[in-house]
TrEMBL record:
It is found in: Golgi apparatus membrane. One of its GO terms (cellular component) is Golgi membrane. PANTHER family: GALACTOSE-3-O-SULFOTRANSFERASE (PTHR14647), GALACTOSE-3-O-SULFOTRANSFERASE 4 (PTHR14647:SF57). The gene is gal3st4. This is Galactose-3-O-sulfotransferase 4. Its main location: Golgi.
Amino acid sequence: MLLRRRARMLRWLVPARLGPVWMWKVLLLFVALAFAGQLLGVIFNKSVHPVTRSIFSSPDAQGPSLGSCQPHNHIMFLKTHKTASSTVLNMLYRFGEEHDLRFALPLGYQLGYPLPFNAHRVKGYQGPNAVEFHIMGNHMRFYKPEVEKVMPADTFYFSIIRDPVALAESSFAYYKEVAPAFRKTKGLGDFADDPMKYYDPRLRNNHYARNLLWFDFGMDHNINFSVALAKHGVAMIRQTFKLILVSEYFDQSMILLRHALCWPLDAVVSFSLNARQQKPSNTGRTSGSWVGRAADIAIVGNKGGIPQFKALPNMSLTEEQREKLRRWNALDWYVYKAFNQTFWEEVTKFGHAKMEEEVAILRTRREELARVCLKDGGKPVEAHRIRDKSIRPFQSGLIKILGYELQPGLDAVTRAACLRMIRPEIQYKDLLDAKQFPRAPAAQAQPPQDAPEADATHRHFQFTLATELKRTFLKRSPQLLMERYHFRFSH
Ligand SMILES: Nc1ncnc2c1ncn2[C@@H]1O[C@H](COP(=O)(O)OS(=O)(=O)O)[C@@H](OP(=O)(O)O)[C@H]1O
């Protein structure tokens, strides 16, 4: 009796809770279809349209129409020092790599700098026009007859300049321990007050301290200033260089460059490379670069577990000292003013409204790419915070050169494109070198040939060498090592 009642209860409960069998069948069919759909979607997306998922293949990558031009691919960029030229070179590296172009790469890391350029400094050079080179852009002291041996006749020449005061700040911070004229000073203001007290034109590496732009363009940077001479220099530059970009108007420069080269928007979107760590000034003002205090210190080593400190150079400048620096760098100041004017004449020809519109598009695109590619919204970070050692920027002197960390979890295509945008110059050159000369020995294994220890490319050699020495030597005498190699380790 009791059993029968329980059985009746069960029969009532089960169908009521679980529903009829046909309903289960329909449900199962739905689940199976949904699963198959998901599976197909994944397979389809991965194997048929992998690229459509990447932000780099969105229509925004092309930017506003360029008309019916053909992209330039014979390009010579004179990479002037401390002018944002590494950011520009990164774009050339990216474009060349993506389009399988051939670079006129240096044997080491610079094209013979600071000696005037010689064609034999190019790796793989076999005589005039024997090999087709597309892009040349590493540091060199310009010397046209030799460049013309390497680059085809239809090459587009361009370069970049920066306000000589800002350039002096950047150069001072970077080459403080390298240029004798800077080494002896207490700070940049001290140098500006009386440059002749510290400057000896005969000393190696002092070109970093006076008319560095003029020097990089291949002219005599110690010659006394006269308007006639300066005009002649400007005319010489104009004869060869079709476009001179201005670091202070970097985004407008990129728009002019993109139209001159007929390149898609993404080719000129970049993240600033080689930036110094910003510091608040003691007056609360920043000068476009950091203005530190004499009391600022950097840890330069570790001796017996005790950190070793060194004072950071004093970078602060009064308005009077800024004016003195303009006078000291009078040739550069003249060049800057002349090409700044030319630049704005070009913008007028291009159209101010159109320029504003395209700059806004460029900035939006950069923000978009930064959000996708970079950790923490693209905030530059100190080298030792970058976990991937292969993308740590080179460190010079006591100041910190910042780099970027990639956003984790990117798909392979996006990651590769993002990585290109933040790969530091030295590592990028190595990568291109290895691609162009697959069986050749690594460049950094060679002893430096180009120039003295100040040569930025040799800094990498020093870095490599010092890294090897680090374990055995640093513990015993970090200070000695710092002085010998002029740089600070980024752990
Ligand atoms: N996009 C953009 N716009 C404006 N300024 C920029 C940009 N990218 C890099 N920079 C600044 O350029 C300075 C580094 O210049 P270079 O890369 O030419 O240096 S180097 O000669 O190759 O060492 C360095 O200047 P300082 O920070 O004043 O030292 C960079 O911050």
